[in-house]
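Give me the 3D structure for MoaD/ThiS family protein.
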Amino acid sequence: MAIEVRIPTILRTYTDGAKAVEGNGDTLADLFADLESRHTGIRERLIDSANGDQLRRFVNVYLNDEDVRFLDGISTKLSDGDNVTILPAVAGGMR
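Predicted structure for MoaD/ThiS family protein (95 residues):
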């Protein structure tokens, strides 16, 4: 099962600069474990192990344009051909 994962600029150091990578898994948790096996360190940037292996607070993940927080979070089921987009929240600016 092939799933396209779009990687934000800030995490591309883990994917050798690739904007998108392919992964496999029945759930989002499985997909992140698969990505970790080939892109060491990326899972830690996405998952908060101190908070019960949930998505980090400032990381947004979309499955086919649906926010996974409104689906089943890290347990969201995946299908062949799905697209997963990782978007870290950005804040700040000048007053």
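Residues 28-38 form the longest helix (11 residues). Let me know if you want a second pass.
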